[in-house]
Write a structure and sequence with these properties.
This protein is of the alpha+beta class. The protein folds into 3 domains: about 110 residues, Butyryl-Coa Dehydrogenase, subunit A, domain 1; about 100 residues, Butyryl-CoA Dehydrogenase, subunit A, domain 2, CATH 2.40.110.10; about 150 residues, Butyryl-CoA Dehydrogenase, subunit A, domain 3, CATH 1.20.140. The protein is built from 11 helices and 12 strands. The strands form 4 sheets. It has a 4-stranded mixed β-sheet with strand order 5-8-9-12. Strands 6-7-11-10 form a 4-stranded antiparallel β-sheet, with no helix packed on it. Strands 1-2 form a two-stranded antiparallel sheet. Helix 7 runs parallel beside helix 9 and helix 9 runs antiparallel to helix 11. It starts with 6 loop residues before the first helix and ends with a helix.
Length: about 425
């Protein structure tokens, strides 16, 4: 087995770096208040529910426009929708590479924006959308006319998605949706919400849940509390659906099979989150090592102390092992599909998200008082990546998936 990366992929990483230096780094420098110690305050409209400031979102939009014009933004999508057909392995390597560069406009994952975008909704649409939905939503996703939020979590149900309280009931040629979603990210700008509701079966059944593309201006859709989080700004509200009426054209995928769409969403996000978390962890390790090499307390280099060396060496070892697992898993996804390696995807995700939190914490400790300040990036990396240990399935749920595959196979044998 050849473990070397393909030449065309390593060449592409170089092209990405040149693009970032030429187009994105100067734009970031012109708007440095969003990336230096003022970043959280500059990005957040504290007097408007803690929402992202319009100027901040406009800057992200300009970054994506430039990346799309240069042919990078849609890299991981099929050529039929303007992409370059990048594989899961390609995307894992690219996302790690971008995060290893550190914080910046090129890869600000707080808003899931990057010069090489992650578009699970487009992949869901290609897999399960009708011809009419594809014609409407795919181009609309890129020209800004159709922005789709994701409504799965509820006030009483998070990881237990098969126990949804939100329902959709047939009434002649319409569906009537009632319920509440929580952390319904992106609703402040969304034109449509991807709402998962029970249409049949019993609580706990995987079948019987249907996904609907609900226009946000539909009567009965009401945005509630925006939840302020560890990492601000917020775009994570409650959304209430009171007798919301939609037609059959709003059904996304097959009736009663909505969780198939949710699986596409989480698997695409999990492997790419894992790669990004690995890259951010490597950045923290590298920066801490640089600091320890330059700092000389008590007249001797800081790195010569085993108390400094050993924690960083252990983190470096774990990063190397995770890199091998993430790339192997992405490679297997390309050949066998995500569901055939679902346990490995979960392993990658929960271990990488845990690693970056540990690496950011250790980097703070290594750099001492300065590491704790907002003038170094570690606190922001920690606050940002800490949420990944909960979103897309908490790490406990992902460990359970690993165990489920282990013991499920044993039971079959």
């Amino acid at each position: 087995m050849d473990f070397d990366l393909p030449t065309e992929l390593t060449d592409y990483l170089g092209a990405l770096d040149r693009f970032i230096e030429a187009e994105i780094a100067p734009l970031e420098a012109e708007n440095i208040e969003y990336f230096d110690h003022r970043r959280e305050h500059a990005r957040t409209d504290w007097d408007n529910g803690g929402l992202p400031r319009p100027e901040w979102e406009a800057l992200l939009g300009e970054m994506m426009r430039r990346a799309d014009a240069a042919g990078h933004l849609r890299y991981g999508l099929p050529e039929a929708v303007g992409g370059r057909g990048g594989s899961n392995l390609d995307m894992a390597v690219i996302r790690e590479h971008l995060a290893t560069r550190g914080l910046g406009l090129h890869n600000d994952l707080q808003n899931e924006t990057s010069v090489v975008g992650n578009f699970p909704f487009i992949l869901m649409m290609l897999a399960k959308g009708t011809d009419a939905q594809r014609a409407e939503f795919i181009d609309g996703a890129f020209d800004g006319t159709h922005l789709v939020a994701f409504g799965l979590t509820e006030p009483e149900h998070g990881s237990d998605a098969t126990f949804l309280d939100t329902t959709a009931v047939r009434d002649s040629d319409e569906w009537v949706i009632s319920g509440t979603k929580r952390f319904n990210t992106g609703m402040h700008r969304a034109t449509h919400d991807m709402v998962f509701a029970r249409t049949g079966g019993e609580a706990g059944d995987a079948d019987g849940i249907t996904c609907f593309l609900v226009p946000t201006e539909t009567p009965g859709v009401e945005i509630g509390t925006y939840w302020w989080t560890f990492n601000m700004p917020t775009d994570h509200p409650d959304v209430h659906f009171t007798d919301v009426r939609v037609g059959d054209d709003a059904v996304f995928g097959d009736v009663g099979r909505g969780l198939e769409l949710a699986n596409i969403f989480v698997h695409e996000n999990r492997i790419r989150q894992a790669a990004s978390s690995l890259g951010a962890a490597q950045y923290c390790i590298d920066e801490a090592a640089k600091y320890a090499s330059a700092r000389a307390p008590f007249g001797r280099p800081l790195w010569k102390n085993q108390a400094i060396q050993f924690p960083l060496a252990e983190l470096q070892t774990e990063a190397a092992m995770l890199r091998a697992l993430i790339r192997q898993t992405a490679w297997r996804m390309d050949r066998h599909g995500a569901m055939d390696v679902t346990d490995a995807v979960s392993m990658c995700n929960y271990r990488a998200n845990r690693l970056v939190c540990n690496a950011a914490d250790q980097a703070m400790q290594t750099c001492g008082g300065m590491g704790y300040t907002r003038h170094m990036p570690f606190e922001h990396i920690y606050r940002h990546h800490r949420r990944y240990r909960i979103t897309e399935g908490s790490e406990e749920i992902q460990i359970r998936r690993v165990a489920g595959v282990m013991f499920g196979k044993r039971a079959k044998r």
